[in-house]
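Before the break, one more example. Copy the sequence into your notebook; we will annotate it together after we see the structure.
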Amino acid sequence: MRGRRGKVLGAVLGVACALAFASSVRAQAPKGLAGTWKLNPAKSTFSPGPAPKSMTITYTPVGDSLKIVVEVVPPEGAPQHWEMTAAYDGKGHPVMGNPDADMITLRRIDESKGESTFTKGGKVMAVNARTLSADGKTLTIATKGTNAQGQPRNDVAVYEKQP
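Here is what the structure looks like once it is written out:
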């Protein structure tokens, strides 16, 4: 009797460990995403525009979370520095420095695709669909949402990985 119960318990624990491992793997940032990415304005489109003068995004894995630092020079006004550390857990995490967002929620779709939802005061401002190229050299972020003037926004920003 004890042997059978031990085998069942062992099997249950094995399945639980496998599920926990699979869950933690899904929660981690894609490996190729880590690093610094610079906007290529010639390959990007911003509607209604105008495009930022420059933009750099740095992704740094921090445990099961991802630290994201954005340096952007908008078409008008002073340069901006945004920072956020978020997990792929479906929960909102604070955004600092972005005038159009105070929270970010990350969702990992697969090894090369993810989604970021930016909110301000509980209202969705933008949803970014991120795709990492197969060679790991190009990151495309398609953004749908509303700009600061309340106009519909539909951007496709292409970034190149920096050495």
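Residues 4-26 have pLDDT under 50 and may be disordered. The longest helix spans residues 2-27. Try to locate both features in your own notes.
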